[in-house]
Amino acid sequence: MGRRTQADRDAITIEIGYAFVSGCFAAALVFAAVYGPALVFDLSPTVDAVLTLAAGVLAGAVFLLRITHVLWRFARRPENDGG
Q1: 45-75 vs 6-40: helix axis angle to the nearest 10?
Q2: pLDDT tens-digit profile, the chain (83 residues)
Q3: Which pTM was predicted?
């Protein structure tokens, strides 16, 4: 593997930022979808705690999966992709 050019380093930096932002957005959507009923309906404290835990775990998993997917896709791109 040769030295990376400035353009390669910039592309990696942008891709990491995109992965992070899109991961945060996807995680927020999942958290809102799972925990949303607790905000709308009057649920018991136990159900509220379970929804909070489930939403947090699922949001964290979606965040990690999104970042992994974006960065692996970037790593597998052709070297001469025209960009």
Answers
A1: 160
A2: 578 889 889 999 999 999 999 999 999 999 999 999 999 999 999 999 999 999 999 999 999 999 999 999 988 877 655 55
A3: 0.83
